[in-house]
Amino acid sequence: MIERIGRFLDAGTASCAVLGTNGSGKSLLAVELFETAQAACSLVSLEQQIEVIEEERRNDDSDFLDCPDPGRSAFEFIQEGGPVSPELELLFVDFRMEAILGRGLKYLSTGEFRKVQLCRALAEKPRRLILDEPFDGLDAASQSELRGVLESLANQGLQLVILLNRVDEIPEAAERIFLIDEFGLVDSVERGDALDRFFKVQELPDELPVPPERDDLALPPGAPLIDMKNLRVAYGGKAVFEGVDFRVEPGQHWQVAGPNGCGKTTLLEMVTGDHPQLFANDVTVFGIRRGSGESVWDIKKHIGHVSSAVQVNYRVSASVLDTVVSGFHDSIGIYRRPSPDEIRCARQWLAMLHLGDKAKRPLRSLSYGEQRMVLIARAMVKRPALLILDEPCQGLDEVNRRTVLKLIDHIGQQSGTTLLYVTHHATDQVPCIARTLEMRG
Known about the structure:
Rossmann fold
């Protein structure tokens, strides 16, 4: 597979896209193409992003300082790739990055970090640029801007290798499209044939798996699930958002929308209790005012959560099955023997998502997209009162993306679970979600 694509790349400066399924080895292919490149080459990937954030956390000296350690700024990280050229400064403007260049890498949203990664790679002045899922985490405006940037770079003679899960993300700059699955290279196809030749949508069962025990939420009479008043979050005196009111009644499904950096993930972290500025705000969840001496676990046990942060933080050595079972206990890993009924239910979720044959494999041996599917099962295995889905389709191929969107709609319509949903893709809408909270950049 790599030899065929390598021959195409080494034959000239033409760019290509590699479209594949989860588990097909796209990310491994990206690394192999990077390591064997004959030309000066740069790589941008989600795995690379995770490694950088983990390095920042290892080097965090906040415990020894009187204030949070911001770590490397976005601008410092870009400069590590090479001098910042006038062309790169123009890209900062095109990507609307001026406000984040001085911010610590740990405090960037997923989409903001993707822009910084691309600028860092371009600072290296490569002749070939390998982009593994470059559109993931970007809002609609940034996706459009990136398409224009890629077209411009290709016209300037930079060879692009773009690895994707989604057919609708194939840029015009790609002159050849390669298809791969878990068995290797399938074919080289025309743009319009990619979807019909490659992807078959999976069916879901009519009934969702039933957990062995369910601790039903007992809300005070008339209380909403979530009640937030006049929220404000700021870093270094600069507000991410302020004056935000948000109230969610049981059974009301909401999409949280807005551009990169507007605070969507921060808002959701206020609900889960994972944001340090939570107690400086008026936040009530499940009828409990946060900061009133409540147990965080009394709240978390009624929440399922899927996000890039959850995926980054799930670093323990655990099998796929144990990862799903851990959702019953809201833990990272397994610390007590699971019951046979818990194991049965977890296996049913894996089978429904077509991951049953991977139950015994280490979670980290799976592709990024397959890990995301496992974490979706972990979030839903206990059938929570509230399911928070922050870019759940990130990293998923066409089959799994459509499967997950059908699953989310199924959950919203039939399970009694209330949904909070974030997506940047206009095509990833869920029919049962009728309300939108629009965050401003």
